[in-house]
Amino acid sequence: METILVTGGAGFIGSQLIKQILIEYPAAEIISLDNYSLGQESNHQAGAIYVNGNTWEIETLFEGIKFDVIYHFGEYSRVTQSFVDYEVAAQSILYGTSQVLNFAAKTGAKLVYSASSSGLANNGKDQALSPYAWMKAKQVEQIKLYGDWFNLDWTICYFYNVWGQNQISTGSHATVIGIWEEAAKTNQPIKVFGTGEQERRFTHID
What we know:
By secondary structure, this protein is α/β, with parallel strands linked by helices. About 35% of the residues lie in helices and about 15% in strands.
């Protein structure tokens, strides 16, 4: 039986991942690690185990536990807001992820990392446009090097403006489609920044 850890498992994307794993691998033991800064108990899935804690506490929280796979989706995840929350973003992305990598390498777990598409545009030049994009890009570099240095088995996924069931629709961490949906529900104009001619890719949660 596989033992799987999902960081951010009570969040928008992590909860949907757990839901799908439970369907496809019903015999797996699934543990979520979430600090509930954005995660919600309403996103809990029956059959998974939920631990309230931070990613930088991973070694202490799971001492003696060997995971087959760690899905690391529990990072700070907003572009514009990262200018306001710089220290929070740095602790989550730079420090927290380093601890997850170290734990995965030491225990032999495969790492699946949720990277950001925000640093891919313009041949990577856009990673300098926000603290979030830069920090996420640095983690991609670190993971690849960690694989060489410490034989870490890794896979990196890039998500583009994820939307769908249980997305965050209000507040400073709302998703783009969530904001648009809320505007449509309340008969408010849908705000588009820039010229309106720019293109964006979107990924549905399914």
